[in-house]
Fold this protein.
Amino acid sequence: MIQFKSAYLGQLRNKVTHLKSETELITDAPTDNHGKGESFSPTDLVAVALGTCMVTIMGIYSNKNGINMPLVNYETEKVMKSNPRAISKIRIHFKFEENNLTTDEQEQLKNAALSCPVALSINPDIQQEISFEF
């Protein structure tokens, strides 16, 4: 079953449509790789996918285990190498706001995050530096 439909729009830009919701996403090549940098680059999406997957899995785990999931803000940094051009590292710092999590719940959520499908799918050559601030 087709889940996404994509089109190259020219000038290193793509439009992707999520067919179920009809949500559209535009990608653009970054300025350091011949693009305009006016939207997410494909490698940006890899880094963003890691963070959003981790938080989603923590939310699912919380719901299943009766944990009151607090608001989580997080910052993501993608580090590129040049030869060959590839992601070398993804850093994500999660900050849990106004939470009442026990030490055990914090560890459970960390473990859930680190076992998310995207984290397990990313090439082991890409270093994942994940930090949690409770």
About this structure: Residues 42-133 form a domain with the GMP Synthetase; Chain A, domain 3 fold (CATH 3.30.300.20). The longest strand covers residues 85-96. Residues 16 and 40 are 12 Å apart (CA to CA). The chain has two domains: 4-33, 42-133.
